[in-house]
Amino acid sequence: MTDYKIHIIDTQYHGPLPIATFLVESSKGLVLVETSAHSTLENVKLKISELGFDWKDIQHVLLTHIHLDHAGAAWCFAENGATVYLHPFGYNHMNDPSKLLKSATMIYGDLMDYLWGTLKPIPADQLVIVEDGEVINILGLDFKSIHSPGHAKHHIAWQLDNHLFAGDLAGICFENGVVIPPCPPPDINIEDWTNSIDKVLAIQEIDTYYITHIGKVTGDLIGHMKKLKKTLKEYAEFLLPYFQNQTDLNQTVQEFKRYTMDSLKAEGLSEKQIKDYEDSNSAIGSVQGILRYWGKKLGATQ
Prior knowledge:
Elements: E1 4-10, E2 20-26, E3 29-33, H1 41-50, E4 60-62, H2 68-71, H3 74-79, E5 83-86, H4 91-95, H5 98-108, H6 112-115, E6 127-129, E7 135-138, E8 141-147, E9 156-160, E10 163-167, E11 172-173, E12 179-180, H7 190-201, E13 208-211, E14 215-218, H8 221-244, H9 249-266, H10 271-280, H11 283-297
Parallel strand pairs: 3-4, 4-5, 5-6, 10-13
Antiparallel strand pairs: 1-2, 2-3, 7-8, 8-9, 9-10, 11-12, 13-14
C-alpha cells in the first residue's frame, strides 16, 4: 500500500467564496484534487512551494466538476503535461471551453478576469473520462469515481480509502459546522442531489469529507448530510410559490435573502458569520438556480 498525506490548500481567493484545493502527497508523486480558479493560480503555486514541492511536478489532476471555482486552472496544469480526470459531461467544455468562457464573461463582464481569469483548451489526449464506480490507480493510489449529480450534472465525488473529496456535494461549511447548499444555475436538481447524498452515506468506510468550500469535515457525517438535505428541501419549498406566482426576480431575491439570514440567525451565528455565508452563497444565484429547477420540474419556464 502506498503511503500518502492530504494537504488542504486555502487558495486565498480574492472573491467572496473561500476555495480549497487538495494536494495528495504520496511516496510516488503528487495528485491534485480541484484546481480552484485561474485567478488563484499564483497563490496555489506559492502554497505548493511552501509545502516543499514544485507545482510543475503535478502530473495528475482530479476534478469534481467543471465550474470555474473548481476547474478554472486545470488548463494550466495540463500545459505542464498533467492528465486531467473528469466526468463525461465535463469533457467537451474542458476540451473546448469557448462556450463556457463566453457564458461566464456575459455574466461577470469586466470583472471576469479579476474574479476567475480565463480558460484555455485542454488537449483530448490529456483528458480522461471516468465512469461512475470506476477505480483509477494513480501513483499506487486507488481513486474511486462516484457520480453525484444535483449541484451539477457533471459532478464527481472522489473516494480515496476512508476519505471523500466531496466538491459541492457536501455543501458549504465553515468551522462553526453550519452547512448550506450552493444552488447556482443551470443544473440544480433537488432529487438528484438528495439521491447523491444517500449514495455516499451508504459507503460505510468513509469517515472524512474534504469539501472545497472549505476544509475537512469529520465526526457526524450523517448529521451533516441530513442538515444539508433539510436545508436544500426548505430552500426549494420556500421558492416554489414565487415561481408559481411569477414574482418579480428582485423581490424574490430580497425575500429569499431575508429568509436565509433568519435561518442562519436561528442557528446562533454572529452577524459576521452570517455575512460570510451570505457572501459565499449569493442569494441571486440560489434563487435563479432553484427557480430554473422548478421550471424544469413543472414543465414551464420562469
